[in-house]
Write a structure and sequence with these properties.
Largest sheet: 6 strands, mixed
Strand order of the largest sheet: 1-2-10-7-8-9
Bound molecules: pyridoxal-5'-phosphate
Strand content: 5-15%
Helix content: 40-55%
Low-confidence stretches: none
Order of helices and strands: HEHEHHEHEHEHEHEHEHHEHHEH
Mean pLDDT: 96
CATH class of the largest domain: Alpha Beta
Oligomer: single chain
Structural class: alpha/beta
CATH topology of the largest domain: Rossmann fold
Length: 325
């Protein structure tokens, strides 16, 4: 079933009490640079450090009793795994997060601390996915995907409703864009309520799966490249069922950033806003600073997450780019 505004409204009621309503704050410094009124929606302050908790919580609460008993499973090394682990723990449901053996120990510990079992299988996402498929087939567990699922999209879309309830007379909402669960959900919410508000998706130049697919007119394979916006990596899936159409229909414009522009966003957040945020969360700020964002009277930038390696962050603050290219 294609997600609708009603699904997002139901999701908001469903997850209320399990997620934080995050603050929206004016940014005088960005407002001055851009000659717009800029506000930051600080989803980096969400529990588990990113908005992914919203979709994961909604997806888990939509399971049948039988599905809840059997538990949930996914492949993730990052924010989706953290969100799903925590949402499952909150609801007393078993979760297994599968990943390859190249994942650093601190990420594994982080997810385990949220109450999930981490299963290391092989050395790649593809091999980890085989284990997920086996758990679904043999143990009847439910796979919860990171973006292309109506319950996930509806959960992420609740940020759109929350923004509209917090601020009046918005002209533009700027959203980090990877698989499109966040951007598609937020755009669906915003456009269904006020089609006058512009929605802009931001990706990195290195491996922008959705942007390249939009240009091609269909979901295409895009090679994954290392980037400081690491939560934006990965394709949209050739069998994409929802987010491609949603983003195509509701998102007005997409912008791509260089690695330097993303790093500038992280630095600005730290030195001017006193916020530690990850690369993927900084792309709205990076876009505003880069001059690539079209001027609008009142703009909300969604800051989507804060889960960055602190040594990398420390180095970036000292002008040192990570050695990942
Ligand atoms: C997952 C993620 C995104 C991108 O969300 P999609 O739904 O895949 O487009 C952006 N920022 C952060 C911090 C994320 O974890």
């Amino acid at each position: 079933m294609f997600p609708t505004l009603e699904d997002i409204e139901s999701a908001a009621k469903r997850i209320d009490g399990q997620i934080f309503k995050t603050p929206i704050l004016p940014s005088p410094s960005l407002s001055e640079v851009t000659d717009s009124k800029i506000f930051l929606k600080l989803e980096c302050l969400q529990n588990t450090g990113s908005f992914k908790l919203r979709g994961a919580t909604n997806a888990i609460m939509c399971l049948s009793e039988k599905e809840k008993q059997r538990g949930v499973v996914c492949v993730s090394t990052g924010n989706h795994g953290r969100g799903l682990a925590f949402a499952a723990q909150q609801n007393g449901i078993k979760a297994i997060i599968c990943m390859g053996n190249l994942v650093p120990e601190n990420k594994i510990k982080g997810i385990e601390a949220l109450g999930a079992e981490v299963r290391i299988v092989g050395s790649s996402q593809d091999e980890a996915q085989l284990e997920v498929d086996r758990l679904v087939l043999e143990q009847g567990m439910t796979m919860v995907p990171p973006f292309d699922h109506p319950d996930i999209i509806a959960g992420q879309g609740t940020i759109g409703l929350e923004i509209l309830s917090q601020l009046d007379n918005i002209n533009t909402v700027v959203v980090p864009l990877s698989g499109g669960g966040l951007c598609g959900g937020v755009a669906l919410a915003i456009k269904s309520i006020n089609p006058e508000i512009k929605v802009i998706g931001i990706s990195m130049e290195r491996g922008a799966g959705m942007v390249e697919s939009l240009r091609a007119g269909k979901p295409i394979f895009v090679e994954e490249l290392s980037t400081i916006a690491d939560s934006l990596g990965g394709g949209i899936g050739l069998d994409n069922a929802y987010t491609f159409e949603l983003v195509k229909k509701h998102v007005d414009e997409t912008i791509m950033l260089t690695e330097e522009e993303i790093a500038a966003g992280i630095r600005h957040a730290y030195f001017k806003e006193q916020q530690i945020i990850e690369g993927s969360g900084s792309v709205g700020i990076g876009a505003a600073l880069s001059g690539k964002l079209t001027n609008s009277a009142k703009t909300v930038l969604i800051v989507s997450g804060k889960n960055i390696d602190m040594t990398t962050h420390h180095n970036l603050m000292n002008g040192i780019m990570p050695d990942i290219y």
